[in-house]
């Protein structure tokens, strides 16, 4: 049931899907009803970008991201939570650094993504909880002790006075963050070497509806050098995006955790479809269809049908092929 629960949570909270009913039937029946999108030839990421939903990243971390990008440098904030709705804050990771958008595409045959360099020059952690701070420090000591080079200066007598460092920025050495710690903190500089910005062509003030994408994070079981970085992380929206209440939750003072709303709809059975033409990898676009059936009588599993349509163009009009999968999840 763990896998089924995770998929259902992704469908309702984390994927840009819509349940097929009176409101979304056109998404399923008319392929041209999907919102037309357009890639910027030279992406300009200036602005404040935030998550539009609670995100799940590898190693089962639940986060909300914010990137304030200026002309030469950026400030990034990765807000961590203990629950999948992002309602129970734990700690914040703050990143400062410089960046560069390169003229080359991310890969030789990429249709949409540009190469980029986001340098994670300084990384800080901050929490309001003494017990959370103790957990963090113990984790660092176990998995990447060199990342906290100034730990000796934090010791008062024989131990660290945790209360002294509550709600304070504690710097960690990003160069010394070994794999386990990178996944624990959600700090993956290598995933910010590919950037894509998409414009929604159906909107009158299109720039407010831009979506910023960075490359996907490798699964923790995969070696970084073996990962192709063909896909993307969840898209970030502009902080002032219209009709995006979750975007507006990001406070003017970025050191404060946004508390996201919990959906009252927990009914996952039914049909779900993509609302927009999505990018699957560097060369392929996709729309997805899921059908979730009730649990099999007398069994502890249900059936999920997955159907994906693949396209050459960013408007999902020229179809390449289809992939039909049937999953039995227990």
Could you characterize what this model shows?
With 330 residues, the chain is an alpha+beta fold. The chain has 2 domains: 1-33 and 262-330, no CATH class; 37-258, no CATH class. 14% of the residues lie in helices and 35% in strands. It has helices spanning 2-14, 25-29, 130-143, 151-154, 179-185, 245-248, and strands spanning 17-19, 37-39, 47-51, 55-57, 61-69, 73-81, 89-105, 114-118, 122-126, 155-156, 159-160, 170-172, 194-200, 211-214, 236-238, 270-274, 278-279, 285-292, 302-311, 319-329. The chain has an 8-stranded antiparallel barrel with strand order 3-5-6-7-8-13-14-15. The longest helix is centred in the middle third of the chain and has 14 residues, at 130-143. 32% of the residues are buried. Mean pLDDT is 79; it is low at 1-14 and 27-35.
In short:
The chain has 6 helices and 20 strands. It is α+β, with helices and mostly antiparallel strands and about 325 residues long.
